[in-house]
């Protein structure tokens, strides 16, 4: 028998998540049945959707997230011992899974696939730039925004796991890129390390004025990770036939559901400028993930795409990594090395 530990969410989050919302339990895993594999967790992904999906589950529930595990025992010949795999089993140090081939919809807790051969790159990229966040950045931006060379692109949450990749893809496509982030350090990092044409600290600038200065000819594509008033301001400055990919609403994740933040209505600029606004749910695009991974890998290997990571060590530090990410501590993808 293998002893395992996992985080269980016992209470719905009220505002900022608290450690008291969780319980860490230790339990014995059963013996494997035919078709099952035992995984030892190596890397765990920390993402904003963990907070956003909290009330979509009935408590108590096991804390979900993507992870990379190494096969320790196997009763499935397709997954021999030593194979690295990606699952959505979340905050646990050991787990048993099977390849059910269930459709990937909503929150895919039974997802399982082999980590692609990264040829010397860190396996952690399999839950970052070459995992769900990278697929989100690539597919949402390229398929919804359809950027053209010379266009102006604005990204909010630009220093995060998804936004930092979106901005770099926009540069690869020949666009002018403006990013919003929450600190001067992140602003400098986006400009000097990732090559954004302009980055702005939304906490210290007048967003409307600063954006008009940075994009005097208007905005063609907007990648929205945060929602709120800043998104209304950005969409009001978009050009005719502008495209908006809505992938997150971080500004509202910790808000009381009955008292959501208010923002200026956007219907008039949407109508007058014939804007296209489309929401993006990554689970609906699972059949395209590996296509995105191939292109992202090529960009990484030829030096066009950087893959910054914010690494936290230790299973016991998962909650601190989560709240730190929600507070904006991370530069790039937040991951935990177990």
From TrEMBL:
Alphabetically ordered keywords of this record: Acetylation, Cytoplasm, Fatty acid metabolism, Hydroxylation, Lipid metabolism, NADP, Oxidoreductase, Phosphoprotein, Prostaglandin metabolism
Keyword Transferase: no
Subcellular location(s) per record: Cytoplasm
Gene3D superfamilies membership: Medium-chain alcohol dehydrogenases, catalytic domain, NAD(P)-binding Rossmann-like Domain
Superkingdom field: Eukaryota
Reaction catalysed by this enzyme: nonan-2-one + NADP(+) = (3E)-nonen-2-one + NADPH + H(+); 13,14-dihydro-15-oxo-PGF2alpha + NADP(+) = 15-oxoprostaglandin F2alpha + NADPH + H(+); decanal + NADP(+) = (2E)-decenal + NADPH + H(+); hexanal + NADP(+) = (E)-hex-2-enal + NADPH + H(+)
Enoyl reductase (ER) domain segment(s): 15-336
EC number: 1.3.1.48, 1.3.1.74
Family matches, as InterPro entries: ADH-like_C, ADH_N_2, ER, GroES-like_sf, MDR_fam, NAD(P)-bd_dom_sf, PTGR1
Subunit structure: Monomer or homodimer.
Family: Belongs to the NADP-dependent oxidoreductase L4BD family.
Protein name: Prostaglandin reductase 1
Organism of provenance: Vanessa tameamea (Kamehameha butterfly)
């Amino acid at each position: 028998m293998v002893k395992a530990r996992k985080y269980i969410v016992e209470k719905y989050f009220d505002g900022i998540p608290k450690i008291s919302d969780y319980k860490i339990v230790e339990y014995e895993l059963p013996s494997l049945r035919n078709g099952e594999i035992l995984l030892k967790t190596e890397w765990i992904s920390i993402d904003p959707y963990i907070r956003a999906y909290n009330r979509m589950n009935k408590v108590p529930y096991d804390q979900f997230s993507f992870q990379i595990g190494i096969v320790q025992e196997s009763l499935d010949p397709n997954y021999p011992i030593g194979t690295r795999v990606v699952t959505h089993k979340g905050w646990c140090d050991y787990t048993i899974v099977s390849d059910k081939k269930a459709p990937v919809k909503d929150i895919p807790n039974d997802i399982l696939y082999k980590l692609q051969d990264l040829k010397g790159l860190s396996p952690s990229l399999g839950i970052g730039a070459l995992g769900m966040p990278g697929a989100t950045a690539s597919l949402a931006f390229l398929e919804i925004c359809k950027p053209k060379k010379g266009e102006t692109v604005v990204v909010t949450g630009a220093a995060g796991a998804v936004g930092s990749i979106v901005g770099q893809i926009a540069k690869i496509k020949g666009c002018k890129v403006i990013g919003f982030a929450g600190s001067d350090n992140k602003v400098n990092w986006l400009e000097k390390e990732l090559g954004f044409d302009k980055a702005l600290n939304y906490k210290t600038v007048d967003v409307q004025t600063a954006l008009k200065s940075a994009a005097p000819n208007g905005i063609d594509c907007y990648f929205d990770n945060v929602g709120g008033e800043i998104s209304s301001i950005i969409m009001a400055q978009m050009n005719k036939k502008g495209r908006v990919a809505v992938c997150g609403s971080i500004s509202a994740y910790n808000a009381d559901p009955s008292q959501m933040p208010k923002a200026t209505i956007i219907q008039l600029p949407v109508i007058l400028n014939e804007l296209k606004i489309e929401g993006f749910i990554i689970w609906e695009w699972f059949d395209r993930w590996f296509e995105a991974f191939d292109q992202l890998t090529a960009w990484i290997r030829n030096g066009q795409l950087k893959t910054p990571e914010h690494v936290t060590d230790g299973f016991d530090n998962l909650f601190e990594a989560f709240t730190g990410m929600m507070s904006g501590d991370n530069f790039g993808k937040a991951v935990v090395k177990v």
